[in-house]
Amino acid sequence: MDEVKVVVAHSERATLRVGDMFLKVDADQVRIDVEVESMALVPVPTPQVLWRQPPVLAIAAVPGTALGRLGEPSTASPAAWAAAGAAIRKLHDAPLPPWPGRGGRGRDELAADLDGECERLVTSGVLPADLVTRNRHVAEAALRPWTPVFAHGDLQITHVFVDGDEITGIIDWSEAGQGDALFDLATLTLGHEEHLGDVVAGYGTDVDLDVIRAWWSLRSLLAVRWLVEHGFDPFAPGCEVDVLRSQM
Fold it and tell me: Which residues does the UniProt record annotate as the domain Aminoglycoside phosphotransferase (predicted)?
C-alpha cells in the first residue's frame, strides 16, 4: 500500500495524498461543488477528477513542482513566474462563472471585518498596535470598486505547479468564483515581492501595484489569528507577520 501523507488538516477540511492521488475531505459540499465545476470551466491546466463520493473528492496529482512556498526562496525561474502571470490572465479573461465568489464580500462588509479583526489583534496582544495601524492604512487601497473576473480566490504559491518554465497545473479551486483580479495576483506573490515584476510582465496589462500591496496587508491581517488558532505559524520567517512588517 502507498504511504498516506497528510498534506493539510484543520477543523474545516483535510487533504491526504496516497501515491499519485489526493483525497480531499470536506463536510461543505458546496465548496466541493465549486471546485469540480470550476476545474471543468477554466482555460488553464487543472487536476483530473478521479471520483467523488461525499464527503471525499479524489483528484490526480499534477506533474511538476509547486512554484514555491511561503517563507522560502522560490527556485522557479523568472520565466516560470511570468508563465504563472500569463495563466492567471487567461483565467481572468474567461467568461464569468454563474456563482459569486465564496469570499465575495462587498467593500463595506470587508472594511467592517477588517476593522473588527484589527481591534481583536491589538486587544489580544497578538500584534503590536503600530504594526496593525500602519497595515490597516495600507489595506485601505484594496477597498475600492472592481470589475469582477473569474478568480481562483485562493491562489497561494503552493497551488501553482510548474515543470521548467511551463505551468502544469493549478489546484484547489474551492474558493473560485467572481472576484477581484488583483486579489489573485496579490495572493500568488504574498511574501515573494521579488517576483511581482515577473508575474505582472506575464499578466500583460497595467496593474495597480499599490492595490497589490494593499491586498498583502489586508489578507495578512485577516489571516493571522485564524492561522494561529488552526495550528499554523504566521510568525515564521517570510510569512504573514513578516509581510506586515515589510509594509512599515
Answer: 41-204
**Dihedral (C-alpha) 211, 215, 218, 222: value to the nearest 10 degrees?**
160
Cα→Cα distances 46→27, 38, 43, 49, 57, Å: 22, 9, 9, 9, 14
Mapped onto helix, strand or coil, the DSSP state of residue 246 is helix
Beta carbons of 212 and 190 less than 8 angstroms apart: no
Query: 102 or 233: whose pLDDT is higher?
Result: 233
Please state the pTM of the whole predicted model: 0.94
Kindly list the structural domains of the chain, giving each domain's residue range(s) and its CATH number in brackets, ordered by start.
62-246 (3.90.1200.10)
* Helices and strands per DSSP (H, E), number in the chain: 8, 10
pLDDT tens digits for range 121-146: 999 999 999 999 999 999 999 999 99
What's the start-to-end Cα distance of the chain, in Å? 51
Q: Do 217 and 227 form a contact (C-beta atoms < 8 A)? A: no
